Amino acid sequence: MAMTADGKIATANRAVHSFGSARDLEHLYELRATADAVMCGARTVEISQSILGTGGEKFRKLRLKKGLAAYNLRVLVSGSGSIDPAAEIFKKRFSPIIVLTTERASEKKLKLLRELADEVKVFGETEINFYAALHWLRAKWQVNRLLCEGGGELNDALFRAGLVDEINLTICPKIFGGRNAPTIAEGIGFPRLAMADKFELTAIIRKKVELFTVLSRVK
Ligand SMILES: NC(=O)c1ccc[n+]([C@@H]2O[C@H](COP(=O)([O-])OP(=O)(O)OC[C@H]3O[C@@H](n4cnc5c(N)ncnc54)[C@H](OP(=O)(O)O)[C@@H]3O)[C@@H](O)[C@H]2O)c1
């Protein structure tokens, strides 16, 4: 995640969603090159129009060198099955697209998604049961390392499920402000300090004006 100095990941009106440097983008592709699959929430894939690609030949070579498939799998999350069918990701067919959804998705929406994605799988009644979903991704699609690229609502669900091992956070020297501007964990959150998901800072590198940090879960 790229985050401003005031802890935001986009502007309040969601108009600005990309604000890291070219180095940060390179870092994102490097991270994708360590993962079997890249996952993001419905709103992120619609707003950013990201295709969740590898970033080019250089990164595909890196993937192959590490014993990964040339292209990462792409996983989208939408509890209501409401991802915009016109989203750019559905137009680029270089690797399988898997949609995780819930019983809230209507038959009509499921049918449409099945035409767009390679697999659509229901986990849970109203909220996705990520514990079961990640088990299934490993068993069925050999996903051993999953990179989640947000947004805040999806991140929150993963934090609450206790499924985040590591956070890669780029701190960018900008202030967006705005009480409605999203942060890295939106959604429901934790009600008490004792319940907060706990991490320790395991790496920090300054490159030009940005700080590249890694936070690892406290076991
Ligand atoms: N700075 C960064 O690094 C960065 C990275 C990513 C995104 N962003 C920004 O973050 C914003 C989007 O974040 P967001 O929090 O609004 O959206 P999001 O997390 O991308 O997507 C939210 C949607 O994902 C589905 N979802 C998430 N958790 C779920 C769960 N537990 N069960 C079922 N469905 C679930 C729901 O889809 P349905 O409504 O379809 O059910 C929900 O509405 C955008 O402005 C984007 O640009 C910034």
Would you give an account of this structure?
With 219 residues, the protein is of the alpha/beta class. It has one domain: Dihydrofolate Reductase, subunit A. The protein is built from six helices and nine strands; from the N terminus they run βαβααββαβαβαβββ. The strands form two sheets. The chain has a five-stranded parallel β-sheet. Strands 1-7-9-8 form a four-stranded mixed β-sheet, with no helix packed on it. The model has no long low-confidence stretch (mean pLDDT 97). The site of NADP nicotinamide-adenine-dinucleotide phosphate has 30 residues, from strand 2, helix 2 and helix 6.
Secondary structure layout:
Blueprint: E1 2-4, H1 22-32, E2 37-41, H2 42-48, H3 57-65, E3 73-77, E4 97-101, H4 107-116, E5 119-122, H5 130-141, E6 146-148, H6 152-160, E7 166-172, E8 199-207, E9 210-217
Parallel strand pairs: 1-7, 2-3, 2-6, 3-4, 4-5
Antiparallel strand pairs: 7-9, 8-9
